[in-house]
Specification:
8-stranded mixed β-sheet, alpha/beta, Anaerobic Ribonucleotide-triphosphate Reductase Large Chain, 13 helices
Length: about 375
């Protein structure tokens, strides 16, 4: 992969001035060969395999980060959906296995481990149901474990029984972690069409059809997109806006693949995909909402907001696809209400309603993301 001197210098500027970062390097590990036996036996096999492949993940990522001067914010692990690995376990045994994942994650120094998951879009098995019922307790007892449930797909429709159960599980997760700002809910994702190679938490898991072990990267750069649009003339048409976003996504993607391949090569592990997603943070200038306003939207939630978000997401996907043959994961735009300063401002001003937010989620990556729900809300 040839990177020019100009690209390197431009990337340094993006990092220093525009909040560009590698949001995550995620090591995917298949636990298929850990199935069978008691929960204790499964736990021992999981520990052994995770330590084998992940023991040098953090130190290697730090070495690559220092070499290129590009921050890698999170180092993570994603494992096979645990319900498939421990099908015969009870809910209490799944809580124990969540503890094993948490202990190994702490031992190797990663920020999160994903894969306390089940795929139930057409129905659930005994193991799926046991894992789902274990989620509130598992998330309350661990600090690094993340959980996800795929409850719907375009092909199969929506598993409404799972959706009804998950409504109760979400409330229970909030209640069990209420002394910690109900953080349990922040570590749980309910998916439709969950990708098998998503590096972003809390929804990451090592899907079926993936290699034995793989390195995936997730890149985020709302500040970079914002900076580019700020320099455009006010009368620029939407075609030119989309073109500039695509060019910028191209550059970001190239950088993400370079870092991912370097980490993978040093670990002697296969490189998988780069996920180019605009994931905002509370930092000034790191907002997706600001990008939409620069595209001509007076206030998030007003007429045209969904169309602008659709254009943004489409341009990111196309720019990434042109830059690399290894685009995957979600790749689009995240619009978390509680993390994006302009989204928060729109809600406070009464411009962004739940109905409008739902419409916006139909054209972004992740649906309803980080929305606070009153504790008095019924199941």
């Amino acid at each position: 992969m040839q990177i020019s001197r100009e690209e390197i210098l431009e990337t340094i500027r993006m990092v220093q001035l525009e909040n560009l970062d590698i949001r995550t390097v995620t090591l995917g590990i298949s636990l298929a060969d850990c199935a069978g036996g008691s929960a204790r036996q499964i736990g021992k096999k999981i520990r052994r395999k995770m330590l084998k492949y992940a023991k040098n993940l953090v130190s290697t990522a730090n070495t690559v980060q220092d070499r290129y001067g590009i921050p890698i914010v999170n180092k993570r692990i994603a494992v096979s959906p645990l319900s498939n690995v421990a099908e015969n376990c009870s809910s209490a045994e799944f809580v124990y296995l969540a503890g094993v994942l948490d202990e190994v994650a702490a031992e190797v120094g990663v920020d999160f481990v994903g894969g306390f998951s089940a795929l139930v879009h057409k129905g659930y098995t005994k193991g799926d149901l046991a894992l789902m019922n274990a989620i509130p307790e598992a998330l309350a007892r661990t600090s690094r474990v993340c959980s996800s449930i795929n409850a719907a797909s375009t092909k199969s429709g929506i598993n409404m029984n799972a959706v009804a159960l998950l409504g109760q599980i979400i409330k229970q997760a909030a209640e069990k972690t209420k002394k910690h700002n109900s953080l349990g809910c922040c570590k749980l994702v309910v998916f439709a069409n969950a990708p098998d190679d998503n590096p972003f938490m809390a929804g990451a898991f090592h899907g079926f059809g993936e290699p034995e072990v793989v390195i995936n990267t997730g890149v985020s750069g709302p500040g970079v997109i914002r900076s580019v649009l700020e320099k455009m003339p006010e009368d620029a048409d939407l075609g030119k806006v989309a073109e500039e976003i695509k060019k910028t996504a191209f550059k970001i993607t190239r950088m993400g693949e370079l870092i991912g391949r370097e980490v993978a090569e040093k670990l002697k592990i296969e490189f998988g995909i780069v996920d180019v997603s605009l994931a905002p943070t509370p930092k000034p200038g790191d907002s997706v909402g600001e990008i939409l306003q620069l595209m001509g939207i007076e206030k998030i939630g007003t007429h045209g907001t969904t169309a602008a978000l659709a254009l943004l997401t489409d341009a990111i996907k196309k720019g990434g696809a042109f830059a690399s043959s290894y685009i995957g994961g979600l790749s689009g735009a995240f619009i978390p209400v509680s993390e994006d300063s302009e989204m928060i401002s729109a809600v406070k001003a009464g411009a962004l309603s739940l109905d409008k937010l739902e419409a916006m989620t139909s054209v972004c990556s992740v649906g309803l993301d980080m929305v606070a729900v009153p504790g008095s809300t019924s199941d």
